[in-house]
Design a protein that fits this description.
Layout: E1 2-6, H1 11-22, E2 26-31, E3 46-49, H2 55-65, E4 69-72, H3 79-84, H4 86-106, E5 111-117, H5 140-159, E6 162-168, E7 170-172, H6 188-196, E8 203-206, E9 218-219, E10 221-223, H7 224-240, E11 246-251, E12 257-258, H8 259-270, E13 276-279, E14 288-289, H9 294-300, H10 309-328
């Protein structure tokens, strides 16, 4: 299948692209490289440098490569920043997604896999969270993604769009060659590993008075390889079902770890002390987000291969050490 992957030079997108190429798909990566990295794109894929909000470049790309399906990763992702500058997120994440959807419909493309988020659930009423639970985001990032899901629902109803919306919990870990390289870095595990590697002085714990066992936020961590495999399963499911399929799945391991537990696990994996400093809460941070992923397991047969937090952190640490060796050469 010919697949257009927006944001395919980024952290999760590049791993998905690698798996798509390995599975024999023809892949075109569409990325403006503002957060992605040219060298992260698989040699088996074609790279088009362009912005999702640029309708003219999108039209030319669709005309030239004639994709049969779209995977959409391109988005701003930092929840804290979204509380300071929500306009940035609604423009890039929501308005640009509308441009992409209008373009694909104009070119008669009807299969769409969306990179969504657990941030849609806000402060959940119960855990583990199921796909049918209320959607009440507590930050503008989550709201910007929820608006896209609402568009997908209406496009499904009005135009017969066939889509899968994959609600990630906390993506983490690395492959042998691909890992997190956000600038600035905003995710917990890579920041912790920056402390372990000596490029950062300490890890900040934002709040220790949440209603959790140790007072710090609890999250469900899922390995990037497992996230990628879910995307390929979703693509296959859309392709094999009648036009107009509507699939919504949580992606997580089903159990959570507090910030303090993640730090302690990283100390064991790296052998470093990793100093921690408690700071005030950040606006928009829910106390706990833990997934029920039983639906995608039952319907698509998804089976995460990296369920242990130590294995996830170790894969990321190995990547950090390999990158450091390359820079030292």
């Amino acid at each position: 299948m010919r697949v257009l992957v927006t944001g395919g030079a980024g952290y999760i997108g590049s791993v998905v692209v690698g798996q798509l190429v390995a599975a024999g798909h023809e892949v075109v990566v569409y990325d403006n490289l503002s957060q992605g990295h040219r060298e992260s794109v698989s040699s088996g894929a074609t790279l088009v440098v362009g912005d999702v909000g640029d309708r003219a470049t999108l039209d030319r790309t669709f005309d030239e490569y004639r994709p049969e399906a779209i995977m959409h990763f391109a988005a701003w992702i930092e929840a804290g920043e979204s509380m300071r500058d929500p306009a940035k997120f609604f423009r890039n994440n929501t308005a640009n997604a509308l441009t992409l959807l209008e373009t694909m419909l104009a070119h008669n493309v009807r299969h769409f896999v969306f990179s969504s988020t657990a941030a849609l659930y806000g402060d959940p009423e119960s855990t583990p969270i199921r796909e049918t639970d209320k959607l009440l985001p507590t930050n503008a990032y989550g709201e910007s993604k929820l608006l896209v899901e609402q568009m997908l629902r209406w496009f499904h109803r009005a135009y017969g769009l066939s889509y899968a919306s994959l609600r990630y919990f906390n993506a983490a870990g690395a492959t042998e060659t691909l890992g997190e390289r956000h600038d600035p870095e905003s995710h917990l595990i890579p920041i912790i590993l920056q402390v372990a590697s000596g490029t950062r002085g300490h890890i900040s714990i934002f709040g220790e008075d949440y209603d959790t066992a140790d007072g710090t936020c609890v999250r469900d961590y899922v390995h990037v390889r497992d996230l990628a495999s879910a995307h390929l399963l979703a693509l296959d499911a859309l392709h094999s079902r009648p036009q107009g399929a509507q699939l919504i799945y949580n992606l997580g391991n089903g159990y959570g770890f507090s910030v303090r537990e993640v730090i302690e696990c990283a100390r064991r994996v790296t052998g470093h002390a990793i100093p921690a400093v408690v700071e005030p809460r950040r606006a928009g941070d829910p106390a706990a987000l833990v997934a029920s992923s039983e639906k995608i397991r039952a319907e698509l047969g998804w089976q995460p291969q990296y369920s242990e937090l130590g294995d996830i952190i170790r894969s990321a640490w190995n990547y950090v050490q390999r990158e450091a060796l390359v820079k030292d050469r």
